[in-house]
Design brief:
Blueprint (H helix, E strand, L loop, with lengths): L2 H11 L3 H8 L5 H14 L2 H14 L5 H17 L7 H13 L3 H17 L3 H9 L8 H17 L3 H18 L2 H11 L7 E5 L2 E5 L1 H8 L4 E4 L4 E4 L2 E4 L4 H13 L4 E2 H9 L6 H17 L4 E5 L3 E6 L5 E5 L7 H7 L7 H8 L3 H13 L4 E3 L6 E3 L8 H4 L8
Parallel strand pairs: 3-9
Antiparallel strand pairs: 1-2, 1-9, 3-4, 4-5, 6-8, 7-8, 10-11
Helix pairs in contact: 1-2, 1-3, 2-3, 3-4, 3-5, 4-5, 5-6, 5-7, 6-7, 7-8, 7-9, 8-9, 9-10, 10-11, 13-14, 13-15, 17-18
């Protein structure tokens, strides 16, 4: 490898993409194309960066399998930053296996971290954790340690495990200082702000207050019966009744919990659950059916009893009853929670991450765009959606992941 390529690689490792470009901008050999692609990716020109990396992979000879694998891993990282979650994971696995076989354990470990980041984004936390736990014989450089610890922190945050999350963020901060790359330090600071940002609202006794992530964790282990409007479930400790696929039952449970220990008139329940302005006999009959279903679903945790005016919800044991709600409630809060990371997302990537149909996500994006909350750029398959960071959105609670204790 010649001196210019070596100098450009060192500049990239030090977080100086302009310095790298100054050395290889006029060259079209395979190593120069790869370094230019990585430099442009660091500068934010992701489309041109992917094109250069593909050209570099083709330009490397059939015997240069390690260099080609490194190009594939760099392209995978750009795809992840571009929120192209459909990028073939098998290709990344194959490239990592090649690097492992040829002794490049540092880049092989980086490939595993990239796959763990992808799995984290789509809510497959157990698989992401297994990726991170794979043994690595070679010590990682500081920049790679930052990426790994941020994934570990993300997994812990999604699981509402705040102590492991803070420990991982502290390790990431220490590694970012060792790397001495401002962009990495800024990424760690941005991730750390989740711990000091309100994550939810506690509604109890007619009053509500904001909770930090640590307070949410404490609440869910406090013994209180929680009607969780972030995950659409009713829970107490390790007992969870999921109602995400039964919106009418959850609407009834929340209305009853917000009024506890008082009851809720039938007309109010009909308006909340069925969005009916005027109740008639058919609404009252349907309410009786849905209350019966709710009573059966919540039997392990609470009792739903009829009163003169309506219905009341009461925990089965001596415990409090509270509602955990997002700090800002929006019709499409989950979509906004993803876009709040500041990256540009395609509708197909959002659909994959949310586990929803592409058309459902497209309708949500169109409604948010009409309200001025998101904006598109590009056309056709290249269209992406962005929004400025939305203060107050509980990204850790709205993004996919298992309920704590589930």
């Amino acid at each position: 490898m010649d001196s210019l390529i070596t100098a450009a690689a060192r500049a990239l490792a030090a977080g100086d993409p302009l310095g790298a470009l100054n050395r290889v901008a006029l060259r079209d050999d395979a190593p120069a194309l790869a370094l230019r692609g990585i430099a442009l990716a660091q500068l934010g020109d992701l489309v041109r960066a992917r094109s250069l990396l593909r050209s570099a992979a083709r330009a490397f000879g059939p015997k240069e399998v390690v260099s080609r694998a490194r190009c594939l891993i760099a392209e995978a990282e750009i795809a992840l930053v571009s929120r192209d979650l459909g990028w073939p994971a098998k290709t990344l696995d194959a490239a990592g296996a090649i690097l492992e076989a040829y002794g490049d354990r540092v880049n092989a470990a980086h490939a595993r971290t990239l796959e763990a980041r992808r799995l984290l984004l789509i809510g497959r936390l157990d698989e992401a954790e297994r990726r991170l736990a794979a043994p690595n014989a070679a010590p990682l450089p500081p920049a790679s340690r930052v990426a790994r610890e941020l994934v570990a922190a993300g997994i812990a945050i999604r699981r509402l495990q705040t102590k492991p999350a803070r420990a991982a963020l502290a390790r990431a901060h220490h590694a970012a200082r060792a790397a001495d790359i401002p962009a990495l330090a800024a990424e760690v600071e941005s991730a750390s702000r989740v711990m000091s940002t309100p994550a939810a609202r506690l509604i109890a006794g007619g009053e509500d207050r904001l909770l930090l992530l640590e307070e949410v964790e404490a609440l869910l282990t406090s013994g209180a019966l929680v009607v969780d409007a972030c995950r659409h479930a009713v829970r107490n400790g390790g007992t969870i009744v999921p109602l995400a696929t039964r919106p009418v039952l959850f609407a009834l449970a929340r209305a009853l919990a917000e009024a506890w220990p008082a009851d809720v008139p039938r007309s109010v329940l009909i308006a909340r659950a069925f969005r009916a302005r005027h109740a008639d006999q058919s609404h009252r009959a349907r309410l009786r059916v849905e209350i019966g279903r709710l009573r059966a679903a919540l039997r392990p945790l609470a009792e739903v009893s009829a009163t003169t005016q309506g219905f009341a919800l009461a925990p089965r044991r001596e415990r409090s009853l509270v509602v955990l709600a997002p700090p800002v409630e929006e019709p499409h809060a989950a979509v906004l929670a993803f876009l709040a990371d500041g990256e540009s997302w395609s509708s197909s990537a959002l659909a994959l991450a949310l586990g929803a149909s592409p058309r459902t996500v497209q309708r949500a994006l169109e409604q948010l765009a009409q309200a001025g909350k998101v904006q598109p750029f590009g056309r056709g398959p290249a269209r992406r959606w962005t929004t400025p960071s939305v203060p107050g959105f509980p990204t850790s609670l709205l993004l996919p992941g298992p309920l704590p204790g589930g």
